[in-house]
Amino acid sequence: MADWLRRLLETGAELFGPDAAVRVIAIRTMVVSGTATLLAVAIGVPLGYALARTMFRGRLVVLGFVNTAMGMPPVVVGLIVWLLLVRSGPFGGLDLIYTKRAMVLAQCLIATPIVVGFTAAAMQALPPRLPDLLAVLGAGPVRTMWLLAREARLGLLVAVMAAFGGIVSEVGASMIVGGNLERSTRVLTTAIVTETSRGEVERALALGILLLALSFAVNLALTIVQQRHRP
Fold first, then answer.
1. Which residue ranges form the domains of the chain, and what is each CATH number?
2. What is the Cα–Cα distance from 187 to 78, expressed in whole angstroms?
3. How many helices and strands, by DSSP H and E, does the chain display?
4. Greater confidence, 11 or 226?
């Protein structure tokens, strides 16, 4: 056990040295997953708000689809995006396959249903007559949505944390649409798979610890924002 721990520490020192390529991979991971999360929030919050506050025929069916999509296997999403972006696919001419943009697209599709579902639940937890009260007080549609979002901020920040956690740790979609190219699309999860397949267990574990640390740092920051106004 002591020898294994020593090898792990030596591997970590090698990986995270001043000239280590792992820094680039870690930054790429945060950029791809962070961008995908922001896009998912920009798309998912308005959609979740609309589902929570608008009554229409088939609404329950739509909510059922959203809740089902929250558990969609990332590898299936990656396969669908790959079929769309591959050269023979309908969007093959855009040359997006095996790029960071394709990874952002795939991760955004994974995260958006999570944001929509959590947002709809958070909005439905508010008093039903609150939007009417805000309208009577003179708040327009955009102002009303902003005020409701402030009231539901605890649930909305949970949506952001769940979405980010769901995509920063996924590997299937990133591997399929990104190709795990060493100097272009390799992220921490695909690097862990690569090192494990090579038998470099200590390197894979060191990368896993880094991934957990980055995820914890992001979620801690969001948790501080979420809880700072609570007693």
1. 21-187 (1.10.3720.10)
2. 15
3. 11, 0
4. 226
